[in-house]
Amino acid sequence: MPNNPQQSKVVELFIPDLSTRCEIPFYSCPITAGFPSPAESFLEGTLDLNTHLIRHPAATFFVRVVGDSMIGAGIFPGDILIVDRSLEPQDKNVVIAVVDSELTVKRLRFFKERLVLVPDNDAYPTIEIHQHQSFEIWGVVTASIHTL
Questions:
Q1: Is 112 a catalytic residue?
Q2: Comparing 83 with 47, which gets the higher pLDDT?
């Protein structure tokens, strides 16, 4: 547990550049952590991550995250999230929301008459949305780009 926990927030917004292609060799063989085997014969072709990570290009944007309130969902500080505005937010989706003019990433939960944003880190409280608050969901997170 970090000494200075910080709520996960969005710090940068980007739109995808679909004008260029970046085709990377794609190997279809399973990769083991044991003894290496020759992979040349398993080269299947190339892979463009845009076609696998972006389902609705016109409605997709990227955000960079700071904070650790979503580490239980595999979202860490510095990760880039792929967000789709065309998807209807569902219970348990990870979403980008604006609460009182502040962007945040949280898990959306519906409980009877209540709408709650839940962190995936027990060090943080849930955020219950009340009628008097300014609230909007900007989109549903569909993937996280996480460097090792």
A1: no
A2: 83
